Amino acid sequence: MEARTTAETVHQAEANKATAIGRDAFTSSLGVIAATLGSAIGLGNIWKFPSLTGANGGAAFIVIYLLSTLFVGLPVMISEVMMGRKAKADAVTTMQKLAPNRVPWWLIGAAGALAAFLIMGFYTEVAGWVFAYIFKALSGNILSTNPEQTGAAFTSLITDPAQSLIWQWVVLAVVGIIIALGVSKGIEAVTKRLMPILFGILLIVCVRSLTLPGAAAGLAFLFQPDFSKVTAGVVLTAMGLSFFKLSVGMGTMITYGSYFRDDQNIPTTTLRVMLADLSVSILAGIAIFPAVFAFGFKPDAGPSLLFITIPAVFASMPLGGVFMVLFFVLAAIAATGAMLSLLEVPVAFLADRTRMTRTQATVLTVILLAVVGSAAALSNSVLADFKPFGMVAFDLYDFATSNVLLPVGGFFIAVFVGWVWGYDQVKQALTNNGMLHNERVVKAFFGVTKFVTPVLVLIVLLRGLKII
Ligand code: PHE
Questions:
Q1: Cα 445 to Cα 422: distance, rounded to the nearest angstrom
Q2: What confidence category does residue 8 fall into, taking pLDDT thresholds of 50, 70 and 90?
Q3: 117 Cβ closer than 6 Å to some ligand 1 atom
Q4: In which band, very low, low, confident or very high, does the pLDDT at 219 lie, cut at 50, 70 and 90?
Q5: Distance of alpha carbon 98 from alpha carbon 95, whole angstroms
Q6: By alpha-carbon position, which residue is closest to atom 9 of ligand 1?
Q7: For atom 10 of ligand 1, which residue has the closest CA?
Q8: CA of 10 to the centre of ligand 1 (A)
Q9: Does the beta carbon of 338 sit less than 6 angstroms from any atom of ligand 1?
Q10: Is residue 142 within 8 Å of 312, Cβ to Cβ?
Q11: When you count CB atoms within 10 A of the terminal residue's CB, does the N or C end of the chain come out lower?
Q12: Which pLDDT does position 6 carry in this prediction?
């Protein structure tokens, strides 16, 4: 007991050494929003949200996802940003600084770093397909209205080990270079330029989809709930998606929070990010489903929706080649902003806590990611029969993070804020030391985070995993 306490005191002393002095940060309020939104918007909106909605009952799934975003995702997001800004440190160090000595709360930060690796493992692979598809769309060689042909093209990409690995490395190199440039000159500068482009392209593709004859059936699918497909597993999937979407439960928002300005209004900023992210998901649904129905394709194509159905849908419309290039550029932009925040979690930790420079930390992390990610990249070829827990690495990484690690992390973060940190600290942090007059918002947030969020997460998690 004694020894452990001493070890932990040393830990905390180390944590305190990693001070805020000289730390890079976001420079403007707009930059804060762009970077945070860049993290939230990603393949989650364009790949996961539409395919999960398609497979799990359309609007009914969206309703559950919405509730979960309000009562679980958003409170955890506010909590994380607030804690990161207070400690001005990476996720592990933040927990060490804020938590009492004897309880190993820093494990949440450590589990978060693990989650960041696993998410990056499969995320870089999907992003690799997206990058590859920009070029395939440009050359016109996936432009077929026959899903069997687009399916064959997709299969030949993902079952080729060399292509899979190389595209993953291209993605890692792009993201690594931006991260090495720094928080303000890399993350902030890039997301500030890319976010407006993303919204612009999305609107163009939506208009195209909505003006197709027969588009209404797609809208009905998106907005008319059918609750018959909803099971405990579906509810867990919706909740996992809300964690994944807002990049919470694993320290990303703690890390980004540490770069927030002290005068930033955290509740309004996070609410805006949440609403903008939600709009992008809904707009992605509007860009996809009306077109899918208009050309008589099936909506419940699962994860391959993006790479098999969508190209066939585009090929069916006039000027489809142009829209297809735009669409995959959009997906690449979205994925890049999200991967920046994933990579930043371990890089910030290494830069805060070791003697490594930011560039060294980035290179080391990228190399480790290439190793972890290769298992996912090869899941459809050489490692197709390697199935720990009955899933190939690609699916395992996805399941373990969205459905286990993120909810567990979110649960502990809510418990920490509600039951350990307490109201007075929260009020100070969220009113910017009394500068903002938002006591009602703070009270509502605190009540939900203390009582509602942990209970909901626990029930959904245990039921969804069939533990109760
Ligand atoms: N929010 C991102 C998306 O929807 C994914 C992500 C998860 C990013 C966790 C960072 C942390 O694509």
A1: 12
A2: low
A3: no
A4: very high
A5: 5
A6: 247
A7: 247
A8: 33
A9: yes
A10: no
A11: N
A12: 56
Rounded Cα gap, residues 269 and 277, in angstroms? 12
Q: Can you tell me the distance from the alpha carbon of 44 to that of 27, in angstroms, rounded to the nearest whole number?
A: 27
What is the C-alpha separation between 324 and 328, in angstroms, rounded?
6
CA 244 to ligand 1 center in whole angstroms: 5
Ligand 1 lined by 280 (C-beta under 6 Å): no
Atom number of ligand 1 nearest to Cα 249: 9
Whole-number Å distance, alpha carbon 246 to ligand 1 midpoint, is 6
Q: Provide CB contacts within 8 A for 2, sequence distance 6+.
A: none
Q: Is there an atom of ligand 1 within 6 Å of 331 CB? A: no
Q: Is 42 in the pocket of ligand 1 (CB under 6 A)?
A: yes
Helices (H) and strands (E) in the chain, counts: 23, 0
Q: Which of 175, 55, 191 is nearest to 123 (CA)?
A: 175
User: Exposed/middle/buried for 243, CB within 10 Å: 0-12, 13-18, 19+?
Assistant: buried
Ligand 1 near 120 CB (within 6 A) = no
Q: Is 274 in the pocket of ligand 1 (CB under 6 A)?
A: no
CA distance 327 to 222: 20
Judge if the beta carbon of residue 340 lies within 6 A of ligand 1: no
CA of 44 to the centre of ligand 1 (A): 6
High-pLDDT (> 90) share of the chain, %: 80
Q: Both tokens of residue 147? A: 């899903």
Going by pLDDT thresholds of 50, 70 and 90, the confidence category of residue 15 is low
| Structure tokens, 189 | 């500068």
Secondary-structure percent of the chain, ordered helix, strand, coil, rounded to 5? 80, 0, 20
Distance in angstroms (rounded) separating the CA atoms of residues 176 and 186: 10
Cβ 256 under 6 angstroms from ligand 1: no
| Residue ID of nearest Cα to ligand 1 atom 12 | 42
Kindly report, residue by residue over 278-325, the tens digit of the pLDDT: 999 999 999 999 999 998 888 876 778 899 888 888 998 888 999 999
CB neighbourhood size of 440 (10 A) = 8
> Mean pLDDT, the chain, as a whole number?
92
CB 414 within 8 A of CB 79: yes
The helix-helix angle for 232-245 and 59-68 (nearest 10°) equals: 60
111, 113, 115, 117: CA torsion to nearest 10: -140
Measured in Å, residue 252 CA sits from the centre of ligand 1 at: 9
Q: What is the mean pLDDT of residues 21-26?
A: 84
What is the DSSP secondary structure assignment for residue 306, as one 8-state letter?
G
Give nearest CA residue, ligand 1 atom 4.
44
